[in-house]
Amino acid sequence: MAVGFYFQPTGFSPAVYDEAIKQLEQAGAGFGSVPGRTFHCAMEVDGSIAVFDIWESTEQFDKFGQTLVPIMTKLGADPGQPMVATIHNVQHG
After folding, report:
1. Given 1.10.10.10, 3.20.20.510, 3.30.70.100, 3.20.20.450, which CATH number is that of 3-86?
2. Over the stretch 62-83, which tens digit does the pLDDT of each residue have?
3. DSSP E strands: which ranges in 30-73?
């Protein structure tokens, strides 16, 4: 069952987000190479990046977090606690 995660990290400016993406790619966890993530959206809200992801399972998300959280911490961003919800429906287009 798919699970959605919505984050509003602190200290996560667009520049910090872009650097985190660069470091994730260098760590082999860039877009398209992360098992289980089916959707990613980064939104700018009042100068900070908020993120919404859809994952096939919480376990896959947790495994990705083992790479992501240290990168964010090193960059001075705190992911905080996400809002988590079971995905009922996704429509494209």
Report:
1. 3.30.70.100
2. 999 999 999 999 999 999 999 9
3. 37-45, 48-55
